[in-house]
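TL;DR need structure tokens for one chain.
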Amino acid sequence: MGMDGEIFRWNREAGELSSFDGFILPGGFSYQDRLRAGAIAAKEPVLAALKDEAGKGKPIIGICNGFQILVEAGLLPGRAGECAPDKSIDMALAQNVMVSKGKIVRRGYYCDWVHLRHEAPARRSSGSFAIERGALLKIPIAHGEGNLVTATPGLIKELNENDQVVFRYCDKNGRIIDEFPYNVNGSTESIAAICNEPGNVLGMMPHPERAFFAWQLPAFDPRKQRLEDPGPGRRVFQSMKQYIEVRA
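>> reply
TL;DR here they are.
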């Protein structure tokens, strides 16, 4: 996207984060997803520094395991415009439970291409800043724990009212069908991505970096043949760049 990026190791001096304009927590299996996905990584000292940077309004995008870490660290959902303290975790990304016609048909890890509908207004979040409301994106998933759940009364209603639900799983026509294979992990209300209240922190389970180029698309997609074209996932990173530029 024309930005300068570098890998920032977990054990690097955390104070050096302040020299960056934005951050991406990538997917993976931090600490082998022991206890819960992202739970141990969320306790790393570097996360305290990342919270400080989030408080300054800098954009943070957590992808898959990165989303799980942001939730476990209290950076999402980020109620009342602030990062939740460590002891106030409002939600979890639990094990996938695929339900069809009222029956559980599968559990655990799942990898496939999915359709997403952008639910929030344009400019609402750092990772969808340049995406119009209602836009459809085709993005791959690859996770075993993406089932967004909460025991906090009224939280989902609050997220909806605040436009903090950024993407939902849908069919190819944009219809929300709250069962497998459209809701690929059993997530509450087919939620695939949320942002904090200010909008600078976004967490999403799908992998936009795996659809950054058209040639990364599946074989049956006609866009795959147009090698030089951008893929749908690029819009997430384009949004982050524009968000940084506007803040500057």
